[in-house]
Amino acid sequence: MGKIMEVAGHTNVLHIYEDYIENVKQPIKKSVPTKFYYDDFKMVEFREAKGWSVLGMGHLDFVGLGMIFLAAQGSGYTNLFFFGKKHNDDVKKAYDYIQKRLQEIKKAKSAPQMAQASNADELVKYKRLLDTGVITQAEFDTKKKQLLGL
Fold first, then answer.
1. Domain segments of the chain: what residues?
2. Domain 3-107 has CATH 1.10.3210
3. What is the pTM for the complete model shown?
4. Which contacts (CB < 8 Å, 24+ apart) does range 41-47 have?
5. pLDDT (tens digit, 0 to 9) for every residue of the chain, 150 residues total?
């Protein structure tokens, strides 16, 4: 899929796609973009800019093991994106989109595990019904095969 949005910062530009983000240092001619996928980081933190001075800059901080690895390779602070006050609204929109994508990915990853846990819970429930005599062994076996996909 194509680019979702582009956000300018103090010395970098973020190119945000559905599956990954590129952090490109300016000027682009001398830059090799750092590409990282949403799976590379666990969360993103947003601090609103109060001005253009170093103390007043806002930042997005991409937190995760993959980002630590990139910074350790000497590519600089690839996990930080600094911006000034005039970019607050655009960066906030990017932050909101990134948060949404992280939640969608987290939900997609946990869905099969939740279904598996639900099936196990159902099986335990039917075993209790069998043990208390509410259902027969044949009914339990049928439900067990259904839940286990056999």
1. 3-107, 111-148
2. no
3. 0.64
4. 41/66, 41/67, 41/79, 43/102, 44/95, 44/98, 44/99, 44/102, 46/91, 46/92, 46/95
5. 689 999 988 888 899 999 888 887 765 555 556 777 888 778 888 999 997 666 788 888 887 644 444 443 344 445 778 888 999 999 999 999 999 999 998 888 776 666 666 788 888 888 888 888 888 999 999 988 888 877
